From TrEMBL, chain A:
The keyword Nucleotide-binding does not apply. This is Translation initiation factor eIF2B subunit delta. Its main location: cytoplasm. It comes from Pelagomonas calceolata. Component of the translation initiation factor 2B (eIF2B) complex which is a heterodecamer of two sets of five different subunits: alpha, beta, gamma, delta and epsilon. Subunits alpha, beta and delta comprise a regulatory subcomplex and subunits epsilon and gamma comprise a catalytic subcomplex. Within the complex, the hexameric regulatory complex resides at the center, with the two heterodimeric catalytic subcomplexes bound on opposite sides. GO terms for molecular function: translation initiation factor activity. Belongs to the eIF-2B alpha/beta/delta subunits family. Gene3D superfamilies: Translation initiation factor eif-2b, domain 2. InterPro entries: IF-2B-related, IF_2B-like_C, NagB/RpiA_transferase-like. Keywords: Cytoplasm, Initiation factor, Protein biosynthesis. PANTHER family: TRANSLATION INITIATION FACTOR EIF-2B, TRANSLATION INITIATION FACTOR EIF-2B SUBUNIT DELTA. GO terms for cellular component: cytosol. It comes from the Eukaryota.
Automatic annotation (TrEMBL), chain B:
Belongs to the eIF-2B alpha/beta/delta subunits family. GO terms for cellular component: cytosol; eukaryotic translation initiation factor 2B complex. It comes from Pelagomonas calceolata. GO terms for molecular function: guanyl-nucleotide exchange factor activity; translation initiation factor activity. Component of the translation initiation factor 2B (eIF2B) complex which is a heterodecamer of two sets of five different subunits: alpha, beta, gamma, delta and epsilon. Subunits alpha, beta and delta comprise a regulatory subcomplex and subunits epsilon and gamma comprise a catalytic subcomplex. Within the complex, the hexameric regulatory complex resides at the center, with the two heterodimeric catalytic subcomplexes bound on opposite sides. It is found in: Cytoplasm, Cytosol. It comes from the Eukaryota. Keywords: Cytoplasm, Initiation factor, Protein biosynthesis. This is Translation initiation factor eIF2B subunit alpha.
């Protein structure tokens, strides 16, 4: 313990020395009085000084400004609250090596074909499956690594043609996970087979089976004497009504411009001899007053429980809320999206209809966002959930995927 | 309280024996009856055992449907949710162990622990709820819930002086509850069910039990609970639900129409402040988190 005691002693000595010096300095300062003040500058002088300093600093940063460098192009600022949204465009030039079937799909996306997220996802999986058949990796690169890069470039091309949906993002994420975890020495034909299997399994398990299971679970909520309001078209909503055929219920299909997707549901129900009424959104209020249940499809459900769905869904949900009519939202689990959107203007697909001399320009947003408080239950293939539990479902599914 | 011998007889007889001493809730008795099924089982595969357990559960639920008297006027929802949770435990154990006999022993061990935990749940809940009941609180009580009574008793025992305001309806159940609470030395007042709104002004806390807790955190309970909840909401009084976690059911009522009979009503989660459970104090939204974790 002796050395430690010595250091302690030394420390104490040093501290005493320091305190003494400090006291001396303070005394000296007090004798001399306060240091002389700086000369007062007028406002204009201060400004001049500041400008000069700024100019010096700028000059230091860019020591030799190139005379021939063109000024940066002016940033185009959005002029309306929707100015930040991108329009679907078919004029995107495809990047090198994007196969014909993906380019064709991009053109269709841009033209607004495929109504509904499931169809978007199905068409994407088909296109990838076709493209992968002609896939030949460059001789010097590993197939696994190259495949992942290819998928990424195809995805970014498609994204330029039309805003991706939660469904296509989930499918591409799955495909890229499979591609990037292939063993590095895998042969091209084996890599092709792995991607094809992934496409088929994703389509069968996450889309088709999910639609059927949601239909089965959701149909349990339809009882004799029910008046069920549906808006637009969704695969799972059609499956739900098909499951319930035989019970004594009535469906009110609410529909709206410009897609009139509800006609597809109307035709399907008509073929199954389900008692159906068809109204436009403008006439929906009295129909929802007499409804006992409202069923909506979804393009995505966010982790805060809010629903991204066809424009107008929020209006239907709000009308239902007014009368405490339960709102059931069908959503395949792969559309549960680990993000949030604040409202319809946050991120959306914008369509502008051409204007002429006597019609003003008409803007249409594809989706709107229904807050979680307007939703009674979300029907997924894993069961009915309150919207607050979507985050828990996303977490559990992510854990399963990585396990 | 030793578990009754379930070595002989069928699952229904076993269930009735478990219920007979009056200290167990029906779902706990049902779980003990299912443990008896495993003990007696001659099944050599996991699949065979699961089939027998499913049969047992079905028999129990049917038994309860036919003889509602054995449940003391409650629905079979609690029994069916308790059985389902037990089956889920069995399946999970099976996924962990490959060997059948090893797995069977583990299931029995965990099953007994599960039943014991369910029996102790009431004390745990009383412990969690104690910090929400303050000296001088006026507590409105609706329905005959053993958990609620245990909670009030525990609070009284720890020296908190409460006034229990007991709602009494046409079945005169409130009078029995009031009698039992008075025996424990709790100041008790009986009010008519029609007077709930009138009395709410002087109430500090509303405390009810549950027959089943739905997936969204709403509760199914004795009819009149929703009336009490509506009044509590209108007067901004907190409504707490005391319920054991074996009552968490895989059911999602969208409204009153999804209920099995007219003796119960469904209180949506927006009317419920908190749930006191043996898993802790939960918000209604946390119930679905727990269920997703169990069933995924």
């Amino acid at each position: 313990m002796a050395p430690a005691a010595a250091t302690d002693e030394e420390k104490a000595k040093k501290a005493a020395e320091k305190a003494r010096r400090k006291a001396e300095f303070e005394a000296k300062r007090a004798k001399e009085g306060n240091p002389p003040k700086k000369k007062q500058l007028s406002k204009a002088e201060r400004r001049e000084l500041q400008e000069k300093q700024r100019a010096d600093k700028e000059a230091k940063k860019n020591p030799k400004p190139k005379a021939d460098k063109p000024p940066p192009p002016p940033v185009e600022r959005p002029t309306t609250i929707l100015g930040h949204l991108t329009k679907a465009t078919s004029s995107t030039p495809p990047a090198d090596g994007v196969p014909a079937s993906i380019v064709e799909l991009g053109q269709k996306y841009a033209a607004g074909e495929f109504d509904g997220s499931n169809d978007r996802c199905r068409s994407l999986l088909d296109a990838v499956r076709t493209s992968i058949k002609d896939y030949a990796p460059p001789p010097d690169a590993a197939a696994a690594r190259d495949l992942d890069v290819k998928l990424k470039s195809w995805a970014s091309y498609l994204e330029k043609c039309r805003e991706p949906t939660a469904s296509t993002l989930a499918a591409l994420k799955r495909l890229r996970l499979v591609a990037s975890t292939l063993p590095p020495d895998i042969s091209p034909s084996e890599a092709q087979a792995a991607v094809e299997t992934c496409c088929d399994r994703f389509r069968e398990e996450r889309v088709e089976l999910a639609v059927r299971e949601i239909g089965r679970r959701g149909a349990q909520k339809i009882r004799d004497g029910d008046v069920v309001v549906a808006y637009g078209y969704a695969d799972a909503v059609e499956a739900l009504f098909s499951e319930a055929v035989g019970r004594n219920f009535e469906v009110v299909v609410v529909d709206s411009a410009p897609a009139f997707a509800g006609r597809r549901l109307l035709n399907a129900l008509y073929a199954k001899r389900v008692r159906t009424t068809y109204v436009r959104l403008t006439a929906a209020a009295p129909e929802i007053e007499r409804a006992t249940l409202v069923v909506l499809g979804a393009d995505a459900v966010f982790s805060n429980g809010s629903i991204l769905a066809r424009s107008g869904a929020f209006a239907v949900a709000a009308l239902a809320q007014r009368r405490h009519v339960p709102v059931l939202v069908t959503c395949e689990a792969y559309k549960c999206h680990d993000r949030v959107r604040l409202d319809a203007a946050d991120a959306n697909e914008l369509f502008e209809f051409p204007s002429s001399d006597d019609t003003p320009p008409l803007t249409h947003l594809t989706y709107d966002v229904t807050p979680a408080s307007y939703v009674s239950a979300v029907a997924t293939e894993h069961g009915l959930l309150p919207p607050s539990a979507v985050a828990a479902l996303i977490r559990e599914l992510a854990e399963k995927e990585t396990a | 309280m030793a578990p009754p011998a379930c070595a002989s007889g069928d699952v229904e007889a076993c269930f009735q024996r478990s219920l007979a001493d009056g200290t167990r809730a029906a779902p706990v008795a049902a779980i003990e009856a299912l443990l008896g099924v495993i003990e007696r089982s001659g099944a050599q595969t996991m699949h065979g055992l699961q089939d027998e357990l499913c049969e047992g559960r079905k028999a129990l639920v049917e038994f309860c449907e036919q003889r509602p008297a054995c449940l003391g006027g409650r629905t079979e929802l609690g029994v069916s949710s308790g059985c389902e949770l037990f089956l889920r435990h069995v399946t999970r154990t099976f996924l962990e162990f490959g060997d059948f006999s090893e797995c069977r022993d583990e299931i029995l061990r965990r099953g007994r622990a599960f039943a014991a935990h369910a029996t102790n749940a009431r004390d745990d809940i009383a412990g969690h709820a104690s910090s929400f009941l303050r000296d001088g609180s006026r507590v409105l009580v609706h329905g005959r819930s053993r958990v609620v009574q245990a909670t009030l008793k525990a609070a009284a025992k720890s020296g908190v002086s409460l006034e229990a305001v007991v709602v009494n309806g046409a079945d005169d159940c409130g009078a029995c509850v009031a009698q039992e609470l008075r025996e424990e030395g709790i100041t008790t007042r009986i009010i008519a069910d029609a007077a709930v709104a009138r009395e709410m002004e002087v109430i500090d806390v509303v405390l009810v039990g549950a027959e089943a807790v739905a997936e969204n955190g709403g509760v199914v309970n004795k009819v009149g609970t929703l009336t009490v909840a509506c009044c509590a909401r209108a007067m901004r009084r907190p409504l707490y639900v005391a319920a054991e976690s074996y009552k968490f059911a895989r059911a999602f009522p969208l409204g009153q129409r999804d209920l099995p009979n007219a003796d119960v009503d469904y209180t949506p989660p927006d009317f419920i402040e908190l749930l006191f459970t043996d898993l802790g104090v939960l918000t209604p939204a946390a119930v679905s988190d727990e269920l997703i974790r169990l069933y995924q």
